[in-house]
Fold this sequence. Notes:
Largest sheet of chain A: 6 strands, mixed
Structural class of chain A: alpha+beta
CATH topology of the largest domain in chain A: Ribosomal Protein S5, domain 2
Largest interface: A-B, 29 and 29 residues
Oligomer: homodimer
Radius of gyration of chain A: 19 Å
CATH class of the largest domain in chain A: Alpha Beta
Number of domains of chain A: 2
Shape of chain A: globular
CATH architecture of the largest domain in chain A: 2-Layer Sandwich
Number of helices of chain A: 8
Amino acid sequence: MEATARAHPNIAFIKYWGNRDDHLRIPANSSISMNLDGLSTETTVEWADDIAADYLILNGTAQTGPALERVQRHLDMLRRRLNLSAYARVESTNNFPMGAGIASSASSFAALTVAGVAASGRGDIDERELTRLARLGSGSASRSVPGGFVEWHSGDSHETSYAESMAPENHWALVDVIAVISTAHKAVGSTEGHKSASTSVLQTARVADAALRFEQCKRAILDRDFVTFAEVVERDSNLMHAIMMTSRPPLFYWLPGSLEVMESVRSWRSEGLDVCYTMDAGPNVHCICTQERAAEIETRLRQMTYVVDVRTAGVGGAASVVRVSKR
Amino acid sequence: MEATARAHPNIAFIKYWGNRDDHLRIPANSSISMNLDGLSTETTVEWADDIAADYLILNGTAQTGPALERVQRHLDMLRRRLNLSAYARVESTNNFPMGAGIASSASSFAALTVAGVAASGRGDIDERELTRLARLGSGSASRSVPGGFVEWHSGDSHETSYAESMAPENHWALVDVIAVISTAHKAVGSTEGHKSASTSVLQTARVADAALRFEQCKRAILDRDFVTFAEVVERDSNLMHAIMMTSRPPLFYWLPGSLEVMESVRSWRSEGLDVCYTMDAGPNVHCICTQERAAEIETRLRQMTYVVDVRTAGVGGAASVVRVSKR
């Protein structure tokens, strides 16, 4: 059978950085994110008897090397879980650029997992289990399976590390106005980056405080309290980057333009605009604001020298099966 | 009597950020610095019976408000220590700009202390005591009293918190090539900044690791081991700024140009140039290199868009009494 699934990337408000278990991708701390509407990965999986190996076509190009190997390992896991012996044809398309700070691995492994399970015909795998399976491919992919505002409970085992929606996409009309600073592929993949976290003497302290930030952020989202939300989101982003910059060797994702945008966002908020920033493992700055401010924020960002593009995304829904068919 | 003293500012390799005791300026961790030759504060102190209050002329302008008050408190302390009742005329001149990341409070309070003691005629106050007294005015001023490469033992009391030279100025021909990014006065004075350190959840971890960094840095200086020196100096600077950026509210001293220079310095070092960066509470980037590379580094920095000026300073000597006279 063949199935196509679509999943959204997500932007984390309480970051995942550092694993308790690298192999199972059990994170050091719980995290929170929102899915990004309008940005998506669409993946088709066909479990086929007529091919001799898994193959992967990404954005129209057949993949080899590490990218293919990572997907093959995920397919191996799915085969064990679904009791399949077939190889898979996988075709995947992202409608946004890879490796520039918009988490493509999250939407990719979420879509791959949902499509792979749907194509198997198994009806006994619930959303929570889907988030665990996606997590095994890429930690943050767990958060792209449920809809809206999502929490990934770190847990301390495969069973207890799963994601679930804390509020649906229509709970709070936030927009991620993404200031694109550079579209170059980042030098250090996230999987390797997570291993670097423990080389910073500050990581233990960051993780120890994470549960408090998680609760502050969750409460702010549920209450739609932008002031509290902004403070904890920016602090959490800066805490993650503080660990990155003090790792050995250091990881610097900020570019001069990133700093300029973050400074501007703080300044705009002090003028009364509800906007805050957060950054992932790349130079782009995610400016989170309320829907009524999004156009204004986009206009201001486009005027800045280092901002080469601006993308906007509202709150996205759950990963979904687009179609299933027998081949 | 009247005395004039000259002291150099210093650039810290292992930073002082955060106090164990704010009032006595007992630091949370020990620090290391080198004095900067060619940059100096020259201060004349006259203990006079014919004036009704302390007065301060700084760079030719009579001072009032917080700047005068801070000096008055220091003079009060000196009066108690020296058993004097006279007020003081203080005239001070810096040959470098204030508040832009070149520690003027260090050279200022070192020169003020040395001049004030010299003008009192007291011969029983040794260098170690001078560093304690300077420390009471501004923590890092303790390090501008001795010469060359200096260590400030944090201690845990007034008596045990003092600075001393670990190596003379001719031990290692390092140069601080200062990339000036902006000459604006910084928004948050260092005294207040130190209090902010404890608002970061990362400060305790930074301080806990400081003794190890101190030893690594001291060993590298004594061995003239630039590779080890560069790694620990940059890490220590990034650790301090990590605390600053995650304080509540956050303190961002980096400007876009600062990031650009730091990235360039890392790149040049990977090409084989012995150069490393360190930053204080301001946007300027101190590029520490060996004397034979200084001209090359200066040339490269001057070509960068955001670098508005470049100052170079070799290793400076101890604070010194320039002249003493009876008025």
